[in-house]
Amino acid sequence: MQNINDIHFIIDACRGFSKKGCSNCVAPDKDLLARLEKIITDSPWKRFMAAEARSGLKPHEKLKISLSGCPNGCSRPHIYDLGFIGAVMPVVNEAGCSECGVCASACKEEAIDICGGRAVIKYDRCLFCGQCLPACPEGEIAEKKRGYRMVAGGRLGRQPRLAVDLGDIFSIDQGFMILNTLLQLHQKSFERKMRLSELLKDPESIKALFHANAGL
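The structure corresponding to this sequence follows.
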């Protein structure tokens, strides 16, 4: 686990973002930790915090970000204010599928069925781990899209709550847009003397807000 512990924010990243790496990591940007640190450090939010909270924030007040290279979530993204989870969307070449079922056996989420002469991916169950791509002996499962699932609004404490999945696979630039929105919300919560997660209660409102600010 890699960690940046600033007086105003925390970023935790799994080993997939380290030089050592991890075989399960499907995140496309191994330098994401450093890039996020720079964005936050150079942001208006950081300048505001430096002026208003010179001695730092209490642990529960800090902005907490988690980077996970895959759905295993070793860096616990679902209990942080914002989580980046590496994701790859698979697609089946129907003409080349041999109906062998190896991909279905490899899928831990039971998100692949063999029917109608081909493998069918149930995207509502898929966690986009990418394990089915190398599993296919015919090489007929390809990468359609790679990026990040994003989750927001997690917390521990007296009233713990899991973060809300924002419901898409986002590019790195869209992830940065979502981060900037979160920084604005964190500043607002600080000014109101409340936890950030209190502004992120309604799942549908959270999704709509972040999607709009990510240009979706």
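Residues 172-191 form the longest helix (20 residues).
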